[in-house]
Specification:
211 residues; alpha/beta; Beta-carbonic Anhydrase, Chain A; 2 domains; 5-stranded mixed beta sheet; 5 strands; binds cobalt (II) ion
Length: 211
């Protein structure tokens, strides 16, 4: 574990390295950003967006919260989405969950987790309810949790597609595409769940059409 002071030493070393490698790096980034991705992931310290995607500063716009949720009434995530899609014009919006997610595990327990956590994680309980038959049929608890991680990613993609921001942008400029990924803590690999974006968009628009 790094100490408080080490963080500043690390930072200065990192700046030195960039200045040696690319002397205009900070000057350029200070002017503008052109990320091609919006990444919405879990706050878990083991899943840092830039690191696992191998991207440098300026390449990915990031929002993280507990269990990578897109909650309809959450102003923060929706502001990030709107800014990334309408102003930065990203081509890809990614929901990235991870196997072994503590938020998903907590939501699977029938216990009072505390006010805010109850309300936040209820979103995942709602996903469980939607796929109850499939999930209840999985005996192994970890396997069931990891399947719920995948289904939660899918449902959060659906929540993205329900937004006017995504519908409007996709219909007018053909982007962004919404993707669902799961990261594995055990091997460090990202898996694309290959969410059928176009199909879901059609399906969602039967009910959530916003014109
Ligand atoms: Co997590």
């Amino acid at each position: 574990m790094s100490t408080y002071d080490e963080v500043f030493e690390n930072n200065r070393r990192w700046v030195r390295r960039w200045n040696e490698q690319d002397p205009k790096f900070f000057e350029r980034l200070a002017q503008e950003q052109h990320p091609n991705f919006l990444y919405i992931g879990c706050s878990d310290s083991r899943v840092p967006a830039n690191t696992v995607m191998g991207l440098e500063p300026g390449e990915v716009f990031v929002h993280r919260n507990v269990a990578n949720l897109m909650v309809n009434t959450d102003v923060s995530s929706h502001t990030v989405l709107e800014y990334a899609v309408d102003y930065l014009k990203v081509d890809h919006v990614v929901i990235c969950g991870h196997y072994g997610c503590g938020g998903v595990s907590a939501a699977m327990q029938s216990k009072d987790l505390g006010g805010t956590l109850n309300s936040w994680l209820r979103e995942i309980r709602d996903v469980y309810r939607l796929y109850k038959d499939e999930l209840d049929a999985i005996e192994d608890e970890e396997e069931r949790r990891d399947r719920l991680v995948e289904l939660n990613v899918r449902e959060q993609c659906v929540n993205l597609i329900k937004t006017a921001t995504v519908q409007r942008a996709y219909l007018s400029r053909g982007a962004p595409t919404v993707h669902g990924w799961v990261y594995s803590l055990e091997d460090g690999l990202l898996r694309d769940l290959e969410i059928p974006f176009e199909e879901l968009l059609e399906e969602v628009r039967e009910v959530y059409r916003l014109e």
